[in-house]
Design goal:
There is one protein chain. The chain has 228 residues and is of the alpha+beta class. It is built from two helices and seven strands. The protein has a five-stranded antiparallel sheet with strand order 6-5-4-1-7, with no helix packed on it. A hairpin with an 8-residue loop joins strand 2 and strand 3.
Length: 228
């Protein structure tokens, strides 16, 4: 919208400059300006000589571009579209006519309006694309959070699996220790039974030996008493 407003301001300046412009007047024969434009008139005459008494070669429309060839007393020799002739100097100006500039400014303003509409559409499309990308980004962030949660859960599961494996190993080790202790207990029990058996046998043998000795002692005493 600022570009359109600027173009409108330029149009007003061009219109005012057209009304305030000084007519193109040539002084001397030096050709500093080789291009001129027909002033803001309906049409002007291109004559074969310097004066209204010369025949009209053709009519030049407002805003027509001509090539300046020479300058005379109030008249300027020009070439336009292959024709050469003389026109009144006051009908020429160094810049295009205000109407031509106005048309160009209007065309420029229309192009600016068209560009503005295109830019507005592009801006709307860019906003829609941004909203789509923003929504997509939100979805990706949510998916990322879900994946992180899954990874954390998977990591917790792996840690639990490792702990379970360690516990299983500890159970196996404890079972082996229990089995070793049971075997050791059996060996100790068998040894104790053997020792008790041997001890009992020794006691019995000792008792038998004592009994035999006591019996002999008694027999000896009887023999000694009988001899008395």
């Amino acid at each position: 919208m600022q570009r359109v407003a600027g173009a409108a301001s330029a149009i007003m300046v061009l219109v005012l400059s057209g009304f305030l412009s000084v007519p193109y007047l040539g002084i001397g024969s030096a050709m500093a300006q080789t291009t001129a434009y027909v002033s803001d008139e309906l049409e002007i005459t291109l004559r074969s000589g310097e004066g209204n008494q010369f025949r009209i070669v053709r009519m030049l429309p407002s805003g027509a571009e001509v090539e300046v060839l020479a300058r005379g007393d109030g008249w300027t020799q020009v070439r336009a579209g292959g024709d050469t002739g003389w026109v009144l100097s006051r009908h020429l100006q160094p810049e295009p006519a205000a109407r031509t500039r106005l048309d160009e400014a209007l065309d420029s303003a229309e192009r600016l309006r068209t560009d503005n509409r295109q830019l507005s559409r592009q801006l709307d499309e860019a906003r829609e694309a941004l909203e789509t990308l923003s929504a997509r980004n939100d979805m990706l962030e949510e998916e990322n959070l879900r994946m992180q949660q899954r990874l954390e859960e998977a990591g917790e599961g792996l840690r639990l699996a490792d702990q379970n494996q360690d516990l299983r190993k500890q159970v196996v080790d404890l079972e082996r220790e229990v089995q070793d202790l049971a075997r050791e207990n059996r060996r100790i029990g068998e040894r104790d039974r053997q020792e008790w058996f041997l001890a009992g046998a020794g006691v019995i043998a000792m008792g038998m030996l004592i009994g035999i000795l006591v019996t002999r002692i008694r027999w000896r005493r009887r023999d000694s008493w009988s001899n008395l």
